[in-house]
């Protein structure tokens, strides 16, 4: 993204943003409510055009390429998408239908190769046992994991996760962080961008961080350089202490 801004009703949702994500990088985007994180992710998902500046995704410039060609190359999960999945849809179909770029079952039969891949991805997220349940009967944590499996179904070149741990209990969060860490450490995994409010949710293996406040980047770069008490305090407008324990981070007010 170069010189990117998004304006709505005379408000800058994002402004002056220069940001580059390479294919082998795993980024976390941190910032308070309303900082512009979801707006940023929607730009990266080719769901939104910038008001000013240029966005290049996977070698294509937004505005010059059909977003319908680009979107299958990008895996995206968000709460907004979760709300669009029909509750009566079978979990295995929620995952497999990503390969056909649809939500909701639209074919009587899917190819065995696709069904096998969907089951493999559900297994990687630890939720094989849910394959024959309907999506509407799942808990929040189960839904999140199923949607991450769906996001990976098309073998995307870029994976975008909007607050994947929101609404999870402690065990669910820790399980998800471990699974996302395994994904981050897999050299074959796609470039990944994860949006969160909490440093506790940063999976080990993530390499870079972008801190956002009021639609602007406070700082961006390697996690070791960017994640400091000073930068975090600036971002969240509080005097914060940041602790590191092993490969995890913890923050609280000073
Ligand atoms: N169409 C719009 N018109 C005016 N303001 C908008 C519009 N859409 C979003 N906003 C505002 O833009 C800001 C950024 O929104 P965004 O959803 O990107 O933030 P966020 O960092 O993801 O927040 P949260 O952490 O609460 O999910 C918010 O203050 C929001 O109210």
UniProtKB/TrEMBL annotation:
<feature type="domain" description="ABC transporter">
    <location>
        <begin position="1"/>
        <end position="239"/>
    </location>
</feature>
<dbReference type="InterPro" id="IPR003439">
    <property type="entry name" value="ABC_transporter-like_ATP-bd"/>
</dbReference>
<dbReference type="Pfam" id="PF00005">
    <property type="entry name" value="ABC_tran"/>
</dbReference>
<protein>
    <submittedName>
        <fullName>ABC transporter ATP-binding protein</fullName>
    </submittedName>
</protein>
<dbReference type="GO" id="GO:0016887">
    <property type="term" value="F:ATP hydrolysis activity"/>
</dbReference>
<dbReference type="InterPro" id="IPR027417">
    <property type="entry name" value="P-loop_NTPase"/>
</dbReference>
<dbReference type="InterPro" id="IPR003593">
    <property type="entry name" value="AAA+_ATPase"/>
</dbReference>
<dbReference type="GO" id="GO:0005524">
    <property type="term" value="F:ATP binding"/>
</dbReference>
<keyword id="KW-0547">Nucleotide-binding</keyword>
<keyword id="KW-0067">ATP-binding</keyword>
